[in-house]
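Entry 14. Structure prediction run on the chain below.
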Amino acid sequence: MIQSTVGFTNPVPSAAPSTYTSTVKHLVKAGVSLTKGQAVYVTGSTGNSGTNMIVGKASNTGESTSSKTMGLIESTVSTNGQAYVIAEGLLAGLNTNGATAGDPVWLGVDGNLIFGLANKPVAPAHLVFIGIVTRAQQNNGEIFVKVQNGFELEELHNLVLTDVQDGDAVVWDSTTGKWINSAVSSGGTPGPQGETGPAGADGSDGAPGADGDSAYQIAVNNGFSGTEQQWLDSLVGPAGSDGAPGADGADGATGPQGEQGIQGLKGDKGDKGDTGATGPTGPQGEAGPAPAAPFTITQSSNNANYPLTISSANEQGGGSGWVDVMKLINSKSGAINPAKHIRMNVNGGLEIVNNAYSQAIFLIADNGDFSVSGRVNGSTIGDSGWITVSSFTNSYTGTNVAYRKINNVVYLRGNVSAGSAGYSAFNLPEGYRPAIDVVLPVQKFGTPNIDYVTVYSNGHVSPNGGAAWLSSLIFPVG
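Output returned:
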């Protein structure tokens, strides 16, 4: 039978009271394996006899394992073994390393102890005072055991808490003569903001920290294998895709007047208009004089500058800048297209044009350049006509894009846009390519800015800025 005894380890000596040491201890049964010096609480008894107590490890994590703490186990004991519990008095042979003599001892978790005021448990941990450190030593430390179980608020004899809610306050109830919980009212208007207190003094600088690992060393620590240069090389990723084109910059100052470009191609002949209604027949005119015989102009003297001078300012039918000088008519019956005009422009060019002013037959510029429509020396002038470009590359789109070759000169028209700057928009076939790469100035499509287009000898047509008007491009073929 397990006995619970209250006694003294040393009887009170009559001759030498200075050697007197007393403890209060109880013989118990271990409900679990216990190590010397662990705090225990009563978990039950053997046979419900009331005196054969069974103990387990006390813990500050709950009310049931902390409020019944009775003391420290005197020796290490296995489950169901017997040992004494020191309820009051000195217990030596403990590990009190880290404590200081005089430190309070508090209940921790799973029978362990906590030393010092600085480590005093706070809510939600339950506060149980175990005793006082009387010797701080790793193997032969000593504690004076004097268990004092802490109280919860609800355990006060003059306090009654019912249906507690967040924000309740404890107030005095004169009717019951007890403290009770009560909801806090909204209260009065808050008082004014108090003055800001003076700033505290700056604390002293802390000691410099140790140098951290380099980025390369961190990479090695995390599994990278290789030299530092190899690691640096691994940080460089592949080239990103081209970004979206930036906004157009502000227009620059107007440049000086450029030289006059070469004359462009003559436009296609327009559709013939509808024949107007026939007007009423006029009255019969008087008979005119008999036709004159063909005339001859003879220079009778070397002093005369010119045998004949014809001067005109007539723009009838010729258009702006052109003056009709003479009209030649073949009045022979059955003649086809009998009328031709001879006219001059303001730059001194001389032209023979058909009666409808729709087709220049022969043109001599003031500098001697000439052009002919039709055949020269029995050969027809080579003209491919406009050939439409239907396939574009590198994201380009085009409007009215076409090319044309007259003799050995290639002409382009239309515009391209929305492509990759500096890359080919389309490709010209053999027979329409320059002998060498040519760079030609153009107006950038959608802006007034000047840009350029490169036409390569392999036929690629590449706008520098990703968009361009092509109607001004002319170059000889190879």
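The CA atoms of residues 10 and 21 lie 6 Å apart.
Filed with the rest of this week's runs.
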